[in-house]
Amino acid sequence: MSQSELPEVPAGGLRKRTDGSRSGDQQRDLSLPAVPPPLPIAVYDNHTHLEIEDGIDTLDPIASLDRAELAGVRGVVQVGTDLATSKWSAQLAASDPRVLAAVALHPNEAPKLFAQGKLSAHLSEIARLASEPRVRAVGETGLDFFRTGEDGRDAQIEAFETHIEIAKANGIALQIHDRDAHDEVVATLTRVGAPARTVFHCFSGDARLARICNEHGWYMSFSGTSTFKNAPALREALQVARPELVLVETDAPFLTPEPLRGRPNAPYLMPHTVRRMSETLDESLEDVCARLVANTERVYGSWSFDADATKETAA
Ligand SMILES: [Zn+2]
What we know:
Residues 1-37 are annotated as: Disordered. The chain has helices at 61-70, 83-95, 110-115, 119-129, 153-170, 182-192, 207-216, 232-240, 271-281, 285-300, 311-314, and strands spanning 15-16, 43-48, 52-53, 73-79, 99-103, 135-144, 173-179, 198-200, 219-222, 246-248. By secondary structure, the protein is an alpha/beta fold.
């Protein structure tokens, strides 16, 4: 892939996570960590944000994908959070065989767009993008009661319901952002009817929610948070989860796994999470990787460019 074929990044260039204003940035080590030993079987990072830069080292999306391959991460789902990043995600997926895209308006964006009178126009654009062959998920969408207060909830729930319908209409997966809203997310999915392949991105529930997901056949994607010292409930959920419903992700540049917590994150650091997963499950790394690959391809289809024509049948 030559440089000239790369999609253009959104106006303003790559988005920056670190602007010096975040509390704690002064204490963080903002250099990129070393590449970990590669996984024995290359897996996929099913949720990442390559357009958001963190730290003091520049790692553009293509360099990030190259480095991921060195660590045994063969492909990613690049996730949009608004119209600009969703379009960019779809463009990147169309140009690089290591990338599939997810498109959506983030649950914290929806209420702002509603207040500006733009929500339905932007949702129509998301619906149009969702029909593109390498867009294989609608996400991240869902409910966030941590950052959005009571006044934004109606718009958030309305946007979530519309995203669910878009996923179903296109026969593609749904990636759910659920922050402090487990019961409402489950209630919405049950009320509206969940798509055949529904993923709780950055699973943040306990064994109870894992059992609910098991019952419905909903996928649970574990991120770096499942390595955190203060997260035994997540590891218990992982042990409860039906093995064929477990996925893995970075949510980079956020949620860097231990022992690198606080450093900038990128898909090449996912082996730390996968190795911890194999310890928690007391299973060989090979078996865990092989199953993650099979689960991920079942949800999103093949990454190969040749597979694009088969999107309809993947549902
Ligand atoms: Zn995310």
